[in-house]
């Protein structure tokens, strides 16, 4: 039997533990109080990179007497034991926000639960997330495991970034007084483009089409065609882009450049059309008018309803409204850009998160 055949016989879970054991290494930590950001994005999803960077910045502003340490997601299993051996009672463990809680991204959810179980004596704060669920047996099993693992931690704070997730989490943990559920906006909206490192460039020109083609896409072939025709009819140059650049185990400087380049690209457009949550958020941070379409779950629609309903440079269209897209494109193209120092929500919207992080 050849090596490839032998590898196929090894269960995936065992492969993960073997890889972690072989690659395990020590991580030298500062002696001061530490605040950890676990599962930080070191891969080319620019939305997740924005979350990681904004979360670290937020903690640095709030926890001025703490050293904020990012732990890249690819390094989780390799350094977890070293951190466990050095952890102190006052250290705070935060886990990255985003849209990966539930069964759609099981590898990330598995790592989140691994971190929660690793630090039973420290406060755990899950930054604002969207939970995904449905009526399938797979989804029900994933939710059962989430409740089982999270509820065993004595001091855990879980923040939803939209009200549908908050309501579901409150229902799931109704019998668990030790699990604190909160509702705050996506953490990227606590920052602005300048804070995230973007710089202003040329005068806006052209339209960016930032539409997804993955398992979260909701648009039909006919709807893509309607959008493309409406954009072409404007006479402006149309450029296709995405917030997913690819790559893995990227260093922090490379990740930051991907983020700042994307913000600058959005800033240089007259209009962005997107069905990505962070396409919408990064566009608003850049000051550029944005036409937003739904994805396959509730995260974009509910974020817009909860936090961005009255934003002057944002139009959200439901799928059955796409036939009317030309008039909304014309309206948005007539709007001036905002500045790069504006945040889409007021910082006070994060007060509950601040209380949990700072133990107020």
Describe this structure as you would to a colleague.
There is one protein chain. The longest helix is centred in the N-terminal third of the chain and has 17 residues, at 46-62. The model has no long low-confidence stretch (mean pLDDT 92). Strands 1, 2, 3, 4, 5, 6 and 7 form a 7-stranded parallel sheet that branches. With 360 residues, this protein is of the alpha/beta class. Helix 3 (46-62) packs across helix 9 (252-267) and helix 5 (106-118) packs parallel to helix 6 (137-150). It contains 13 helices and 12 strands. It has helices at residues 3-9, 12-23, 46-62, 76-86, 106-118, 137-150, 163-172, 221-232, 252-267, 277-286, 299-307, 325-333, 351-358, and strands spanning 34-40, 67-72, 92-95, 98-102, 123-132, 156-160, 179-183, 207-210, 238-240, 271-274, 290-292, 314-316.
């Amino acid at each position: 039997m050849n090596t490839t055949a032998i590898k196929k016989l090894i269960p995936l879970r065992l492969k993960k533990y073997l890889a972690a054991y072989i690659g395990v290494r020590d991580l030298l930590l500062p002696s001061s109080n530490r605040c950890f950001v676990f599962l930080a994005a070191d891969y080319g999803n620019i939305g997740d990179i924005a979350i990681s960077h904004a979360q670290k910045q937020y903690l640095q502003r709030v926890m001025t007497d703490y050293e904020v340490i990012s732990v890249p997601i690819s390094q989780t299993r390799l350094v977890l034991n070293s951190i466990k051996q050095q952890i102190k009672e006052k250290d705070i463990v935060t886990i990255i926000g985003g849209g990966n809680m539930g069964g759609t991204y099981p590898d990330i959810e598995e790592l989140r639960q691994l971190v929660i179980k690793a630090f039973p004596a420290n406060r755990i704060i899950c930054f604002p997330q969207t939970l995904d669920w449905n009526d399938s047996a797979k989804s029900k099993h994933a939710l059962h495991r989430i409740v089982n693992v999270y509820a065993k931690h004595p001091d855990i704070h879980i923040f939803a970034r939209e009200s549908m997730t908050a309501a579901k989490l409150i229902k799931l943990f109704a019998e668990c007084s030790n699990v604190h559920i909160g509702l705050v906006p996506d953490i990227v909206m606590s920052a602005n483009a300048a804070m995230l490192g973007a710089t202003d460039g040329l005068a806006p020109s052209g339209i960016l089409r930032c539409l997804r083609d993955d398992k979260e896409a909701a648009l039909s072939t006919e709807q893509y065609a309607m959008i493309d025709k409406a954009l072409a009819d404007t006479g402006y140059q149309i450029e296709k882009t995405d917030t997913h650049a690819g790559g893995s185990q990227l260093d922090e400087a490379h990740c930051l450049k991907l983020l700042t380049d994307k913000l600058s690209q959005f800033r240089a457009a007259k209009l962005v059309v997107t069905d990505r949550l962070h396409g919408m958020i990064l566009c608003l941070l850049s000051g550029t008018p944005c036409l937003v379409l739904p994805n396959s779950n509730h995260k974009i629609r509910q974020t817009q309803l909860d936090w961005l309903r009255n934003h002057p440079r944002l139009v959200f269209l439901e799928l059955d409204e796409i036939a009317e897209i030309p008039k909304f494109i014309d309206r948005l193209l007539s709007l001036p850009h905002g500045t790069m120092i504006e945040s889409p929500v007021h910082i006070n919207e994060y007060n509950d998160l601040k209380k949990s992080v700072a133990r107020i």
